[in-house]
């Protein structure tokens, strides 16, 4: 974000006034400079203490596990064998390709919807904003019991509302749960339903930071709403959009809840995901070493993708 | 604005204090007096055990019992077993998973061979297989799941189907077609996205997951079980109801007319399909060929004592009380847990008439336990869930059965390092 | 200022209403379900109007699980966590957004990387540690590990990047210390993102499932969502009406919090603070 740095100008003007004031200013600036060097470390320390103990340390231990055959209580150093086995397992690649297909459709869809909703919720003419905001945000609060039952009812192949509505339009009933293609569509719909409101709220918080005067001067210049959206809103939202993009990418690659709840990875692994794969090994068959290795492979993949997302978004600066 | 940050810091301080205080309370409250044993169990099993505490304490007032409500996925006990600390004294597992637990967590369970010897003849013979390894017993069998055919009496009448004429699965499929013709919106039965139906068929056929220590999912019995489920689906007499919720919906809306499930489903029908009281009957399973075996088991669990326990004697006393006394089993049956402890079959409570079905349900199921084949699950079930589900999915989708069975066997072999039977 | 055209307004309202119906329907179903008997819940087509079973379901639920204790535990854990994480993330995010210092990039990348790691992987090591500390069944076992909130730091950093640097410089020239700049200028100007992060952190912790399930083993010490999930599992009689009544209770605090905080989302970020 390119905000002009106006730092020293004021101090120089001040310096020319009186000696005593000048002295005062220098001592202040000196003290400030020392403080300024130490401040970031001080500010980061509370977070980093917790972070080192409860995140970094367990990560190091699980990194060690990934090079072992740890299964239940037995453990042995086996080097890269876990990594080799995962990377040669067709099921892992299948699950990876599944999330990529879902990712490519779902994340753009959700961000477009989210931005649109955020702009509408932020617009001046809208009445009952609080109510709309609440309703848009609700889905992320869904509990898993309701989520699973309601989606099964709506998308039920024999008597679901969705297939009924399609029937009214003379479209053949869709096999939401038993067709590999449509089950992915179902997952995309479910994920978009649950997470769009969440992203809308983040984008809305970002939008409210955009200075109104920018729009006012654009109005004076005769720019249309459409131009304003692309010339002001989108550029101002860029860091937040990128944030949402990276987060949603991570979330989709780590997709777990929807497929395990709605399709159980089926039919025939068409909606299986890498984290379901990891979970199956780690928490259903207790192969903690293998599961840890899978987790690091997933992390590396997510890391690479996020890196390119950051690079590709102009400027290369998050 | 200032107020906000002031409020924030104030709240932060109070909350830190709150946490600190609640921590202290916890410690001072945990004064020792006699043994306290913790039991991890799930759902209605946990509820039943909770109700047992009162009766148990009449006999053993010094032993305090706490029930930890767990989940069927074992996420509450496995981190503790893996970490070697923090485990409860008594752990419930599914009978079919216990061998896998013994393999994956060696030295985590107390040898109960001597303690259980006296009870050996009092439990259904087939239930000891799951808890024995190298001749030593590591857990006590709890409940079992004798399986039957639940069917809608009224819908069968409407379609002109005589339940007595259904002797084999082929008869069942023919009856299903007849039903569909008479009542187009109702299908004969439903299956869920798991391997329940497969396991029922496999057990009925006398097949097993592991044979002589080798993976056996590619056996002829396995193929027969898979092909029957596929045939049911292809002939339009079985639909996918997805999961337990889907099955309840299907039953309530007359989408399906029968359920092929164990004794515990009687409880679900009574509770969640209560409007159809009097409309349901129970019959033995059809056989694969005329005069063949009509009995099968699905499910059931065991209770084991953790080696991390400091009170193994007290823990076993609790297990003994809840599983080998009439008082204990009386509570269990109230929660629909069908005992593998045979002497209880003579108890009056056990013989009570059931109003929903208009029959003595438990004695009926007790009659379906005599010829259940002992089934060797081997130590593979925790690793095999996914490959077996995939196998069924592939077969139902029309993939080659033999190839799919090989794929599943190989997948299980890869993680368990066991050989595959040829 | 040009008026938004009527057509645009209509289109916007229509779009919003469609989205809202889709968003709200499952919750409406949940609410209706909590007022029905169990077999009515599974009737098809689904019932659209509530019936009178809510209190029955609720008392049944309270009899089978310590829901009110669970609600209390959930509230304690979530409130303490949310307040603490807001402060830690704000101050750390500020350091990353507005300071240059040695090791900044490495530290930031490490924080980002942990966000990309599937959370399941640290469960076993974390479990060993927390058991070792003797925190089993205690609220800090859930609160403290959750404070390693990489997401929150990243979120605050992104939002604080747009704070004008001259505002901070001006305060320095006036002689304010760095800590007081953070408390008196930065915090008040970032109320909208703080409110947003507050609600996001709250729901994240409120719905947190796997870790509390593992570490809060006693029913009396665990959270409401964990309690409810224990009541629904294959192979047992599930009292759906009771569970749905529980989920209705469980979402009320989150909705209240949202309504309380949502007005801050629209508060202008520079409002009233540039001059002060």
UniProtKB/TrEMBL annotation, chain C:
Record's subcellular location: Cell membrane
UniProt xrefs under Pfam families: BPD_transp_1
CDD domains: TM_PBP2
Keyword Membrane attributed: yes
Domain ABC transmembrane type-1 span(s) in chain numbering: 71-261
Gene Ontology cellular component annotations, sorted alphabetically: plasma membrane
Transmembrane segments: 12-31, 75-96, 108-135, 141-160, 181-203, 237-261
Keyword Transport among record annotations: yes
PANTHER family for the chain: ABC TRANSPORTER PERMEASE PROTEIN MG189-RELATED-RELATED, SN-GLYCEROL-3-PHOSPHATE TRANSPORT SYSTEM PERMEASE PROTEIN UGPE
Protein name: ABC transporter permease
Species, as recorded: Peribacillus loiseleuriae
